Amino acid sequence: MQKSAYTTHSRPITLTQSTEAQVYGLFAVAMGLTVLGVYTGMHFIDLIMTSGIHILFLIIQLGIILSARLWVNKSPLNYVLFGVLPLFSGLMITPFILYVLTGYANGGTILVNALSATGFMAASAAVFAKTTSWNMGVMGKALFFALIGLIGFGLLQFFVPSLRTTQMEMAISGIGIVVFALFTAYDIQRIAHLGKVGANPFILAISLYLDIFNLFLYILRFMLMLSGNRR
């Protein structure tokens, strides 16, 4: 889903002081549902691994994200699909989380460190976005093209094994961390700006959720390459 500068084509609505709080409330619910998805996935890991159903979860996620503009204003469908997105995200990454925990002697420590680092970087991005006088909207297009580049290179790695070296993984993970840390700051500032013109809170919450979710995954990948001790 494309992230743009501080403009919106949504139908203006009456703004209340709780608009920004609603966005962060939805985001908090999304994070909780992600944890629930991982927890549930751990109990059905054999089914997930043997059936390949996590690929279906990915396809459904992409469908929900790409069609967001069509359903965000339709209640209660917006609440249902918004909840399905993070729940399926948690189910989808369960095999990777299990791989980290069982495939690395220090996997548990790395996972905790990645979560802590994600929280720290997200908080730092929030402080910067809230205190800077710089309009980060000018970064919108650059960040979008950087995101396309990350996706394209990730697909290339899938088909070209020589691009899966430790050095290459660390480099692409490092770039991903920078991109999504900037996306986080960009979207936090965007929430404050677009909230004033009545932007849909579901769209903003999805954007912030995807920022933090992907930031965590790139940090985890980077830490695995940096200090992972395979069993």
Walkthrough of the structure:
The chain is mostly helical and 231 residues long. It has one domain (19-227). Helices cover 77% and strands 0% of the residues. The chain is built from nine helices and no strands. It has helices spanning 19-43, 45-51, 53-66, 68-71, 77-103, 107-131, 140-159, 166-195, 201-227. The longest helix has 30 residues, at 166-195.
Summarize the structure.
This protein is an all-alpha fold and 231 residues long.
Task: Please report the number of helical segments.
Answer: 9
User: Strand percentage, roughly?
Assistant: under 5%
**Termini separation (Å)?**
38 Å
Helix content: over 70%
User: How many distinct domains?
Assistant: 1
Mean pLDDT, as a whole number? 89
User: Biggest sheet, in brief?
Assistant: none
> What is the general shape?
globular
Based on secondary structure, the structural category is mainly alpha
What is the count of β-strands? 0
Unreliable stretches (pLDDT < 50, length at least 5) are 1-16
Rg over CA atoms: 18 Å
H/E topology pattern: HHHHHHHHH
Topology:
Layout lengths: L18 H25 L1 H7 L1 H14 L1 H4 L5 H27 L3 H25 L8 H20 L6 H30 L5 H27 L4
Helix pairs in contact: 1-5, 1-9, 3-5, 5-6, 5-9, 6-8, 6-9, 7-8, 8-9
